[in-house]
Amino acid sequence: MINLLAFNIPFISIFVLMITAFITPLLPLKKRLPEKFSCCVIGFTAILSLYLLYSLTNSGQSLTFNFPMGHFPAPWGNELRAGPLEAVLSFFFCAAMFLSLTGNFSSTAEDISPARRQIFCVLVNLLTASLLALTYTNDLFTAYVFIEINTIAACAIVVVKEGASTVRAALRYLIMSLVGSGLVMIAICLLYDLTGHLLMQNMHGAIKVLMITKEYTMPLTVSLALITVGLGIKSALYPFASWLPDAHGTSTNASSAILSGLVLKGHIFALIKIYYRVFGLDVIHFLRMDTVIFILGIIAMIMGSIHALKQSNIKRMIAWSSVAQVGYIFLGIGLNTAAGIAAACLHIIVHACVKPMLFTAAGGLSTAAGHKKNLHALMGTFYINRWAGLGLIAGACSMMGIPAFAGFASKLSLTLASFDNPFIVWALAALAASSVLNALYYVPAVIVILTKNKDAVLETHEQPTLLYKISMFVFLALNFYLGLFCMPLLRLITRGVNVL
Amino acid sequence: MNKELKLIWKKFFNWVLGNGPRPENEVIPVEPPPDLPFSQRPNDKYSRFHEATLKERYNQWLEIHGLHIFSILYSALSILTCVVIVCLLLATVAELPPFGHERNPANNEVIRRYVEHGGHETGAQNIVAGLILDYRAFDTFGESSVLFTAACSVLMMLGKSRRNRIKTHQPKLKIPAHNLNDEPILRGIASFSIPAILMLGCVVVINGHLTPGGGFSGGAILSTALILAANAYGSQRVHQFFNERTFVILSSTALMIYALSKGYSFFTGANLFHSIIPKGTVGNILSAGLILPLNICVGLIVAGTLYTFYSLFNKGDL
Is B215 part of a structural domain of the chain? Predict the structure, then answer.
């Protein structure tokens, strides 16, 4: 049995973040107090999640527990559920959120006015709370409520930086995202009508019975398709990703890092939970949704990279690369095996660490180039902000899948997981092609920043702040940790998937 | 008859296109908007960009970009997609279990316990209130936070910080000032209906655990009283006691009370500790444990948020 503190951690971390969000608007603006306060709280929840992970792995045989929200047991009241996978993900979500905020602490101040920064903190706290709630929830309707919070907060942190382009991007994002929410809502209504439950394992039981009696197959297929499309829009699966480059490319660096690294992942993990815990892998296979996801994942891997090749703005390039990386994750889900889902979860973690690092690095480099985001303008910026340069190089190597960098670990596990799939040739070809395409746009960017610029005298020589250097160092350390020592983590994730 | 129908259709069509009637004394700025969504400046024909309707702006955009075939294809495809999705969803609904049938999957042990034991387990006479604020209070907490999130986002976009910035470099639209003394009917009716509406709202909120209603519906009623007051007596009067700062303090405090009290309840429930919250006698006004204070919190948040939305979208300030 785990101890009392660890048992309460899922509840405590969600509530502490929510209460922080409600206190933040009342804090004075002096000395950037709201931001420091919310950063500290997010760091604190990261430590709590780590402690939960530690006590879950040392608890003996029972790896998971359910936390009833209130005095009523599960099918009547709400319930949270924690296992190793949930704990690992919430630790990495909180840690990446913390590092994205601290790494971009100074660039946030340049982009946003103090009054708006205060509300930005409120939204970031709500976003973190909703990510944790999506990770821990065991109830489909709770998941929907927190998807709503996530949607609104995510659109608002795009528009926190003033300007016509961010408003336009946020509007596109909002419209697409609301379509996604609507589809998910319809699907949940249909599922409730068919199963009579909202608790995941009870729905799973009812769906199993429906599959045996062959009743209601058509509504079940439609609701599965609606949920996939709805969450696919929110997690930027390729044909539905048209909102992503604008939203991630125009917003402030901290928002881009959070949106690309975390918001997409929360929805993907919700989808994994619905697939695995509500429908079950055999039902997914029977309804042919795994093949659809697999094909869409492959298309996303290729098309995201091709779009990224066309970009001249570094942030838009990194944003399109996210589409390709989401494709990898969906490829893993589409393999429809426990190993595939474990590989997808590992890639979620890897991308949640690498993409914020890339955005933070790109922000540092463009500040060094005098706030220009064009790739040509970044020439020689490595020598002005070496930490940002190192971050971009490490991130690029990771995205290409060079051994010892984080991306290698997840690509390797995806490859290994695809061996018992009949479409292995397609998966391997797509992985290879996508890696080459990644190299085609990341290597030129690295070469540009490493080329010494002799003609132009760069007028800005402001050094990166200490906080920036520390955050970048932690990002790099996480990157190498994931690349070199991923096997214990992968074992942990596999155990987590097995008890999911 | 036919003519009238045509007139109504034309009005509706104009409304859809955004060609609504404009106030006569609205002053339209002469200069083009500072940030056009295209690379080129509009030519002389469109110098009065502010006056163009949505349809005209769309046509102008098409003209500049030369996308006529694309636009036709786009409309055709979007209509086709909509039709397909509508048919698919209707076919799905036809396949669902019959509505209201007693052997439906939804009529299971979950609903039975809510209906049969809801009263004495939550202390609430109104089963729906017991359901949303006690059995599934976490979801309702999330819903109230959705309102808070939305209000914060709208405040951030349209609130004070933005107004101060805009003053410097955007032409001011002259909003026609109503002479409030010219509207004796509105003021007369408002003077006796506002107290009645406020009373009704309070009754709906406070009796939420006894009769149909509760925080969400009562809060909406309360906000209509505020909106009516702002229309009849001028928004300045309302802003004397309800401005941006009051709203933020009000909703933050209400949500904090919600989070702390319900957090205590969740904590004791999950850890099987003894909870000090009394259930009371079913049917009394002081019963049902936390439902009454939570209803009041939700009511305050809903009323504040709805009035804030109205005020920000209508007049652009709060």
Answer: yes
